[in-house]
Amino acid sequence: MELKPLKGQHHVSAITKSATKNYDFYTKLLGMRLVKKTVNQDETSMYHLFYADERGNPGTDLTFFEIRNAGRTYPGTNSISLTTLRVPTDESLDYWKDRFKEFKVDHDEITKMNGRKALFFRDFEEQRLALISDEKNTGVSGGRPWANSPVPQEHGIIGLGPVMLTVANLAPTKQILTQLLGYRESGKYGLSGSDGEVMVFETGEGGNGAELHVLVRADLPRERAGRGSVHHVAFRVESEEELRKWVTLLKQNRIPNTGFVERYYFRSLYFREPNGILFELATDGPGFEGDEDFEHLGERLALPPYFEDQREEIEARLEPLDTKD
């Protein structure tokens, strides 16, 4: 059975305590577009918000589950410890540094990450984020910022950059990445302000949109997740046909997994790598325009057809979230 290489990051899903504050931060401050306001399909009492480029192209989505009673995060190992967002140029980072100062966003000085300029920052819930420059990037292309964003298009966020995992033991994670998922080891670097070495793995065309960075920190406790933590990272699979091959491969390797999962906007498969980090494989399509047209993405509560008969009950459990401004 021949499998095509994974294409890179598909989306990252994190946890917020407040959908309203989250919406304000990621659209009005970071300038991303809310391309889908829906619910967690496994727990329909919570919002699932998708922020992305102008139409939610795969590889540009940062998503959030609203868990209103979420406690604080205690950072540590066996976690997805950093999400980076791509911006077009090194000059863009200067724009963002000024913007963060203006809006009092907690941020560091511009530094380098695997040879590319980067700006680390935190959102209002201590979500660990960084902007990374695409100026010297080759590989997977980015998306296109929304024309109606408050951020100028020449500096707008164009997709997900490298995602960082922190583990106490590299060997089992490396084995899954290289021997099962087909990633190749492409380098290593030291991270400013942090002990430990970061190993770089890439897939497909490589570059910012197809790298996983793994920080090894045997000295830290295991992370306790809460608001501001990441729930899972998803990787791009070209088609449903390819995804079903992955289902077969994981079964053959006796790796516990969910099997094929219908998500309507894409199709998925979930499993945990040996350090307990949740991975998802997700198809590039169908996309977000099956139930909303391009001009009105994210304006209403969108429900997959198999939840429509529950709409009244679902809406009654959600706090109103105005996303038309």
From TrEMBL:
It comes from the Bacteria. Residues 8-134, 159-284 form the VOC domain. Pfam families: Glyoxalase. PROSITE patterns: VOC. PANTHER family: RING-CLEAVING DIOXYGENASE MHQA-RELATED, RING-CLEAVING DIOXYGENASE MHQE-RELATED. This is Glyoxalase family protein. The lineage of its organism: Bacteria, Bacillati, Bacillota, Bacilli, Bacillales.
